Amino acid sequence: MKVNLKTLVIWGGILFSILCLYLAFAGQKIDWALVWASMGNIDWLWIILTLVPFWLTIAGKVFRHQVLLYPDKPPLGKLSNGLLISYLFNTALPARPGEVIRAYYIGEMTGISKVRILSTIFVEKVLDILTLVIILALVLPFAGLPAELLGPVLALTSIIVALFIVMVVLAAKPLLAQRLTAALVKRLPAKLGNTVLGVVTQIINGLTPLANLRLAPALVFWSFFTWVMNIGTTYTVIVAFHLPVPAVTASVLLTVLFNLGLSVPTPGGVGPFEFIVTKVMTVVFGMTNMSLVTAFTVVLHIIGFGPLVVVGFIVMLREGLSWGKLTAASSEPPIKPTQEGAHGLG
């Protein structure tokens, strides 16, 4: 029986979710009545206040994406719609096709190359992880990581820094990258070689903002703004639960680690999220009340994903799109020999 890569990713993500949930809660004494009681003691004013940093986080991502697409300046509304729809699909489906759907939607609505949009989304992810790593380095003196977390974090840091350097070099020397690609594709059939060269050119175009000194300050500002607001969302939930932990340090550490952990494709982040939050609160900050930790973890997860799913679904319907059409679009190649422009989603 032939099994394709997509199926392996889906089932691998589901199994990883189950494993992480087991590691997070196995052997723990959780009184579900106390979990419910802990939710009843929430300061709901602080929960309402989470909406402010939460949506400012989304705004920061949208503004940064517009900078990355320079010299094009697509409407912020279309970039926002694409981002929200991508969150819907990334949360609902284990294979996380949201970023491909985001590139498809924005490309169709603006006429910008889908390959170029995908390359800017990739740059986004690298900038996100690089920003998180810098923030983590700032907070580590105040909260020592367990050995089982420190090793993977340092390894990931090294990989991301190396990748970022390569991307900056490619952005600064686009002609060199194109010449090297052209030399390599000479061994390929002409039609395939031209396609590969076109794709690589679009990818390099997506990296060019990294070498633009005028854009660099905006990219740095929006990257840190986005993650400070994201940390603010976690902070408000910690305060709402009156947790006996240093709120600022805990919110930084949690936000950094669970976002790094969510790089593994799992449905809705279920599993890795719970494992990281529970381990940080119990191992790093010494909380022993697992009922309170569980209640906090559940609410934080719902706040982090619930609004995105609801609003993303509303945006999809408002734009006249269908789940089936967007899912099918995620399986299409991002560049076609006959068309690569704005024809509408109809």
Short précis:
By secondary structure, the protein is an all-alpha fold. It is built from 15 helices and no strands.
What this model shows, in words?
There is one protein chain. With 346 residues, the chain is mostly helical. It has one domain (39-329). The chain is 74% helix and 0% strand. The chain is built from 15 helices and no strands. The protein has helices at residues 5-25, 32-40, 44-49, 51-68, 76-92, 98-110, 114-139, 147-172, 174-185, 190-207, 216-240, 247-261, 272-284, 290-318, 323-329. Helix 2 (32-40) packs across helix 14, helix 4 (51-68) crosses helix 5 and helix 9 (174-185) runs antiparallel to helix 10 (190-207). The chain is globular, with a radius of gyration of 21 Å. 36% of the residues are buried. Residues 337-346 have low confidence and may be disordered.
Give the topology.
Layout: H1 5-25, H2 32-40, H3 44-49, H4 51-68, H5 76-92, H6 98-110, H7 114-139, H8 147-172, H9 174-185, H10 190-207, H11 216-240, H12 247-261, H13 272-284, H14 290-318, H15 323-329
Which key features would you list for this structure?
single chain, 15 helices, 346 residues, mainly alpha
